[in-house]
Specification:
The protein has one domain. The protein is built from eight helices and two strands, in the order ααββαααααα. Strands 1-2 form a two-stranded antiparallel sheet. The longest helix has 29 residues.
Length: about 230
């Protein structure tokens, strides 16, 4: 039996989930945080390049791209011309949905950032982000990594673009993943997030895009399903 592309991607998604759970079990988050942090805090926290370019600049660029994708629903450019209006709307909404999903989870989180820990000059104690409802003494609101979603949110566009060009979809996905990792690492160096926060953001954004595409595909197949003639069963 031939497996559908979505089946294979579903299996890949589950393997990625298992890898994330394995990462959480290693306790490497703190070990990596200690590479750039000390009892005096994080030396790169207020670095002008990290703050104004990697953080504020990347965030502003991401919102500009989101806006451009919504504009492109009406006035497409490049490979987007090869998508119909519905596909372009799905692409833009998928990116926005991923950003919202990460933001909602982040604001509901009790997990504080590395720079909030006593070990790094803050007031909080380390508590796993899986310890739901357990306060760590800090401000919380740090899981998953909101800033990394400025790039990872775009991975969901892969599912739409593959309808027009497998090559363009693969390139888009690769750029989004690399950019997300770079933004995540830059925030980790500043003490704003642990590595697991970045990895979970990538997985959440991918899963949001995957789920939306599956839902849209099923809805289309249902709507476009040819009606059965009344005399067919007679």
């Amino acid at each position: 039996m031939t497996r559908s592309p979505n089946f294979r991607l579903g299996v890949l998604t589950l393997f990625a989930l298992a890898a994330l759970l394995a990462w959480d079990a290693t306790g490497w988050d703190l070990a990596l945080a200690r590479l750039s942090g000390s009892p005096f805090g994080f030396a790169w926290r207020e670095n002008p390049f990290m703050v104004h370019v990697m953080h504020e600049g990347a965030r502003d660029l991401s919102w500009a791209l989101v806006t451009a994708l919504f504009v492109a629903i009406r006035w497409p450019v490049g490979v987007l011309r090869r998508l119909n209006t519905g596909d372009r709307a799905q692409l833009a909404l998928t990116v926005l949905a991923a950003v919202i999903a990460v933001s909602v989870l982040k604001h509901a989180s009790d997990t504080s950032c590395p720079w909030d820990l006593k070990e790094f000059g803050g007031v909080a104690r380390y508590v796993s982000h899986w310890s739901w409802g357990v306060a760590d003494g800090g401000p919380g609101g740090c899981f998953p990594a909101g800033h990394a979603s400025a790039a990872f949110a775009y991975v969901g566009a892969y599912f739409v673009l593959r309808r027009a060009s497998a090559r363009a979809a693969a390139i888009w996905l690769g750029v989004a993943v690399v950019a997300g990792v770079v933004l995540g690492v830059s925030q980790q160096i500043r003490g704003a997030h642990y590595m697991s926060h970045t990895l979970w953001t990538g997985w959440i954004c991918w899963t949001v895009g995957f789920a939306i595409d599956v839902a849209v595909t099923r809805l289309r197949s249902h709507v476009l399903k040819p009606a059965v003639p009344a005399h067919a069963g007679s």
